[in-house]
Amino acid sequence: MSNQSNAAAVRAFRILEILSASGTPMTLAEIVAAISLPKQTVHRILKQLEAAFLVSREAGSRHYEPSSRVRAMAVNALMHVGPAAARHAILQQLVDKLGETCNLSMLSGDDLVYLDRVETDWSRQLKLAPGSRVPLHCTASGKLLLAFLPRARREKLIAHLPLRPRAENTITDLEDLREELGETRKRRVGTNNEEHVPGMIAVAVPVMLDRNRACAAIAVQASAQRRTLDALMTFLPELQAAAEAMAATFNE
């Protein structure tokens, strides 16, 4: 590869990096300011990335964001390379302490995706392999990560979520969901009281990149026949310690 091609590839990657770090879609002017390249150069690279389905825009929008293809690649990388083994070990140690199934998940588009999951041997389990996707509005981790999003991005996302009932306690009203997310952010703990699957409850804590940004969530899940939400809440010190250890793997 020529030096010129090399430089172009690095610039394209840098733009993807800027878009991914932003957390919200960006205009051409915002990207130009962040990368300090001529406007025409950035526009040309964006067109190339868009043609390759690496960045996307909503119809009629001037705002760019990483495409679903890039998001899927990022999830696969987090699941299989780098500190993946260290993350699995943290989850396994947590399961050994709590005796309940635990998972690590993150936002991916309009869903929650499991990066890893360690199950116990209890007979009644919801089998969800790494890579599985579940709804945001009725899961402990989904509601928690929604609650930590910047307000504008959160409002845009929940306004388009299909709030379909999954179980008797699923939140299906947008105003009720807004209220739940506000409480969730205050307490920094997500709960699922038989909202996704009948008979299953969960508690989640954030994996923080810094004081205000959550990159993932760790949750403990149990059968409502054996545990209560109050009982799962007693696991918060262990969950938070695991989340702190997990955060170090995202900063490596």
From TrEMBL:
<dbReference type="InterPro" id="IPR036388">
    <property type="entry name" value="WH-like_DNA-bd_sf"/>
</dbReference>
<dbReference type="GO" id="GO:0045892">
    <property type="term" value="P:negative regulation of DNA-templated transcription"/>
</dbReference>
<dbReference type="GO" id="GO:0003700">
    <property type="term" value="F:DNA-binding transcription factor activity"/>
</dbReference>
<dbReference type="Pfam" id="PF01614">
    <property type="entry name" value="IclR_C"/>
</dbReference>
<dbReference type="InterPro" id="IPR005471">
    <property type="entry name" value="Tscrpt_reg_IclR_N"/>
</dbReference>
<dbReference type="InterPro" id="IPR050707">
    <property type="entry name" value="HTH_MetabolicPath_Reg"/>
</dbReference>
<feature type="coiled-coil region">
    <location>
        <begin position="167"/>
        <end position="194"/>
    </location>
</feature>
<feature type="domain" description="IclR-ED">
    <location>
        <begin position="69"/>
        <end position="252"/>
    </location>
</feature>
<dbReference type="InterPro" id="IPR029016">
    <property type="entry name" value="GAF-like_dom_sf"/>
</dbReference>
<protein>
    <submittedName>
        <fullName>Transcriptional regulator KdgR</fullName>
    </submittedName>
</protein>
<keyword id="KW-0805">Transcription regulation</keyword>
<keyword id="KW-0175">Coiled coil</keyword>
<dbReference type="InterPro" id="IPR011991">
    <property type="entry name" value="ArsR-like_HTH"/>
</dbReference>
<keyword id="KW-0238">DNA-binding</keyword>
<keyword id="KW-0804">Transcription</keyword>
<dbReference type="Pfam" id="PF09339">
    <property type="entry name" value="HTH_IclR"/>
</dbReference>
<dbReference type="GO" id="GO:0003677">
    <property type="term" value="F:DNA binding"/>
</dbReference>
<dbReference type="InterPro" id="IPR036390">
    <property type="entry name" value="WH_DNA-bd_sf"/>
</dbReference>
<dbReference type="InterPro" id="IPR014757">
    <property type="entry name" value="Tscrpt_reg_IclR_C"/>
</dbReference>
<feature type="domain" description="HTH iclR-type">
    <location>
        <begin position="6"/>
        <end position="68"/>
    </location>
</feature>
